[in-house]
């Protein structure tokens, strides 16, 4: 069993429908304990990471509400890969099947009590960049799993519409 902390704060109908589908997908996994983090705070992106970190009981999966695991054995394979990574790996991310993007957001398996989320701040669209910079400075690594996910919200950012992209 592994804890999954899924953050959701949809502001439009399409994002609400995407979030419901993603939550339904996580519910299909028998080996996860799903925690849904909701809110409307202006610092929701940061606060949700702190909430997950402080509520977790062990290493955990942190997920956005617009990123859906594809394979039926996704969680098992992610945990298997996690068991083989070096202790200096603070996060294990995944790859989007849509645009082959990788990042710290989306879905990541996080080594509990390694990243001081309370020390970070900034606009919502900078959380991935700030965390990556901190990990690099402290010689912690992020590795990317070949596991694929559907990033349905790619190009539909609600925290920063000026980041909308086309594949």
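Sequence proposed for the structure above (167 residues):
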């Amino acid at each position: 069993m592994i804890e999954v902390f899924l953050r959701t704060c949809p502001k439009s109908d399409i994002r609400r429908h995407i979030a419901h589908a993603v939550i339904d997908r996580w519910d299909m996994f028998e080996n996860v304990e799903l925690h849904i983090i909701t809110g409307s705070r202006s610092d929701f992106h940061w606060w949700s990471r702190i909430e997950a970190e402080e509520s977790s009981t062990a290493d955990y999966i942190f997920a956005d509400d617009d990123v859906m695991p594809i394979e039926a054995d996704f969680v098992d394979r992610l945990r298997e890969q996690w068991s083989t990574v070096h202790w200096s790996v603070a996060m294990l991310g995944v790859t989007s099947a849509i645009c082959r993007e990788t990042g710290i957001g989306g879905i990541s398996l996080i080594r509990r009590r390694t990243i001081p989320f309370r020390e970070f701040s900034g606009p919502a669209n900078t959380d991935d960049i700030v965390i990556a910079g901190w990990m690099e400075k402290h010689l912690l690594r992020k590795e990317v799993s070949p596991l694929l996910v559907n990033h349905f919200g790619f190009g539909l950012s609600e925290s920063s519409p000026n980041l909308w992209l086309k594949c």
